Amino acid sequence: MDSENVTSLGENLMQAVAFFSMPLVQTVAIAVLAAALAAFLFIGFREKSRTERNEEPATLTGLRVLAVLLAPIWLLIVGYILRSLGALAMDFDATLYNTKDGTELRWHVLGFVGLITALGALVSAPLALIRVWTTERQTRTSEQGHMTDRISKAVEQLGAEKTEVRYTLDKDNTPVQAQRTVPNIEVRIGGLLSLERIAQDSTRYDKGRDHVRVMEILCAYVRENAPAQDAVDFPLMEWEPLAEDASEEERKKHLAWRNARLDVGLMRNPNASQWAQSLDGPRADIALALRIIGRRDVDQLRVEARWLPEALDTAEWVFDTPCPKLPDPPEDQPHPKGAIEAYEARLEGWKAKISGYRGYRPDLRNTNLQKADLSKLTLSGANLTGARMEGAVLTQARMEGAVLWGARMEGAVLTQARMDATTDLTATDVSSVAVRSVDYTNVPLSQAQINGMFGDASVDLPEDRERPEHWPTWELPIDGEHNFHGEWKKWQDDPEGYEPPDPP
């Protein structure tokens, strides 16, 4: 019985060897191995592309995918040719001596030459792909060098200066020539526009490789050329908000100081808001840099969201996501418990999404933006800590998620400016600010900050905040009698004596 088993095992082994010696089986085996190798290479390339911050262009990716997909076919054909060459070489002696008229030998040689030619063509195919890949890399390197040169030239323009010659009279009324070096605004504006074009081209053609770098250059330019220490200070000392637990005597002193600071009259100090409106705006080049930063398009914002190493490659610009609102309850009925819980869940999810943003934020900390026109600009997520924004116009500006910690905004115009719960207004001075058609339901404003503003019925306040008495109870018109701007000015001129107009 044992000998029969051994004999059966030997026969099975011989059959297996004979089976795997068949050309078809060998060809299929080579194809399977080639496919497995190609799959391994494809997965490796894909994981590598995921981990690389600077993605390769579509042309190189296409060549990579083409090479991986053709690798099994290429290996299969090469294996078949090598096997056929081996078979021809083994049968060459028999063909040489057994041929009668040389026909078989001729066909044998022609087949051998044809296989050698095919093998040479197959070997040259990957070499051609390598040559194309190398050429593409060289072209890309040249393009990157060109982009670097463009950035360098534009940055040089940002430092352009010119010499102005002025003539003055000395004490003897003799003309004296004086020279001074001043910024060359025209050349600097050209450099700023060049940087904007570079950022746009980089986003459109190079997946934003240089976009954030350009934004960093622009923000640094504003910080260095318009620092907060150059801002004009209000001539009176700081007016601190009244504490909620203040005594009656403290309230009287606080009111007297408020009148001295804000009232207008003979021999009195100027009103804080009017002072803010009388400030000079930023220099032309600074104003343009701010507008370039604030008019980034959707694709540029998406690049910023994915820029930093800790950001996800699939991250999106989150500050466009509206804050969820609690729907109105049924008439004369409280909110159902389930509706409130569902709203709280949506609100927590929204907060987590906003707070989880790990992308780039424009850095405009400690800058002088007094009387700057920031209307309709996208400043969402921007870091404006310590910025001097007295008298700035922020009409319809996007401010969701902006950090305004310690910013000064006396006399600023916030009509239809968009803020949300993630806008940090900690220690922000918003006295004499005009607000209209804005939703502050989820904006963290203190009662003292709200009391220092001027608004109307178009402003939605948090539920735990009271509407100031000097706010009209109806929505003021844009023009005509009792227009919003005119009523704001009346309140600025006489904060204590101002009486809001009655509804029409």
Automatic annotation (TrEMBL):
UniProt entry keywords in alphabetical sequence:
Membrane, Transmembrane, Transmembrane helix
Task: Say yes or no: keyword rRNA-binding present.
Answer: no
Biased composition, Acidic residues: where in the chain? 494-504
Membrane-crossing residue ranges in chain numbering: 20-45, 65-89, 109-130
A Pfam family hit:
Pentapeptide
Highest taxon of source: Bacteria
Instruction: Please give the residue ranges the record annotates as the region Disordered.
Output: 485-504
Question: Protein name, please?
Answer: Pentapeptide repeat-containing protein
Species of the source? Antarctobacter heliothermus
